[in-house]
Amino acid sequence: MIPTVPELPADVQALKERLAAFVEREVYPLEQRVAEAGRIEDARVDELRRKARAEGFSMLNMPEEAGGGALSMLGQVALEEESGKATNGLGFAVLDRGPAELWDIATPEQRERYVAPILRGEFREAWAVTEPGAGSDVSALAATAERDGDEWVLNGEKWFVTSEGEPGFYLVLAVGEGEQLLFIVPRGAPGLELARTPGFLHDPYLDHHPELVLRDCRVPDANRIPEGGGEGAREWFLVERLFIAARCCGAAARSLDLARAYALEREAFGVRIAEHQGVSFQLADSLTELLAARLLTYHAAAAFDTEPDRKVVHGKVAMAKLYASEAAGRIVDRALQVLGGRGYMTESPVARFYREVRVDRIWEGTSEIQRLIVSRGLLKRGVETYLR
Ligand SMILES: Cc1cc2nc3c(=O)[nH]c(=O)nc-3n(C[C@H](O)[C@H](O)[C@H](O)COP(=O)(O)OP(=O)(O)OC[C@H]3O[C@@H](n4cnc5c(N)ncnc54)[C@H](O)[C@@H]3O)c2cc1C
Prior knowledge:
Largest sheet: 4 strands, antiparallel
Number of strands: 9
CATH superfamily of the largest domain: Butyryl-CoA Dehydrogenase, subunit A, domain 3
CATH class of the largest domain: Mainly Alpha
Low-confidence stretches: none
Helix content: 40-55%
CATH architecture of the largest domain: Up-down Bundle
Order of helices and strands: HHHHHHEEEEEEEHEEHHHHH
Radius of gyration: 21 Å
Bound molecules: flavin-adenine dinucleotide
Mean pLDDT: 97
């Protein structure tokens, strides 16, 4: 039985509090610099990452045998919530996560060659699944993989490849021998081309999202994930969805906090604006939705750790992502309204969240796709399955 409201173990709670203090002390001033400069300086991010590593916030998602923290999903979600309070994607540099989903399906050689350097902080990976003709519908992938002796020849186009700096390799999903296969394509592989790096609404942001072209790109068979590549990509989606929900809770909490503080201090028409119900009711709606989003997210995280039926886990995670990302959009929007003109200045974290949380309804599966997952599960398994 999954606890409806899971309790955080004491060590996770202590870690969460330490992380919250770190984000406030180290990241908030950096955000201000970014707002002033209009860009993120690499050297400062490197310094932030080093400090976070020294504090023990990195690689907590990786299993012990990989040298990671083997933290439960509930614990990871509790930390992601804090990292979500940072804007400009800077939280990613604090909770420097490793590719746990890749670790699970990689060969020992692939782990040594590609995952171990990530754990040492030498480079990062990037997932290349989406294509110009295949976004929500991953079954429509058109990238191809053809075997040629002990090599594979890859052709296709990949979009929105979220990358932090220059990734050490890309995880490319392509169709070969009648199924979706996952390949490790190192940066600089012959035939791999970085076509374009478009701008996005959330810029300046830690990550960029380039478009890749694979033109007769050759990789050795040793770079093919032996089995379960498509499944591995779906597991990555699942985990990322949960983290999106958690970060949305963090973003919403910080925005609401700022709106509350302003409402208590600002006066208009002879009283503090918090005394106008037009303002205080907005705050009430936001707090209610935030708590609901948080409970759902923590519940889904507990289900991830303990529910044996992965289909049910998918449904609960989809509900968390759907609700938390949509609630965060409303909460941030109301916070901006309460802050008035000050909320619209880019030096306000709320203005930045206003742009940044919008993508949470899109990436890793749009709200509509989450509704599809939830409705299909409900129709097949019934209501009670999802209430346990
Ligand atoms: C900033 C950013 C970073 C990203 N990072 C990555 C990454 O690292 N790796 C990666 O592989 N991908 C990444 N993506 C891609 C992302 O996962 C896709 O954008 C997302 O899955 C939606 O696909 P699409 O944009 O092609 O939209 P489309 O699939 O074209 O959908 C368009 C609209 O149609 C709706 N729709 C589609 N099908 C249905 C349906 N059956 N029922 C109802 N509505 C439907 C959608 O909900 C949406 O509103 C990223 C995207 C962004 C914006």
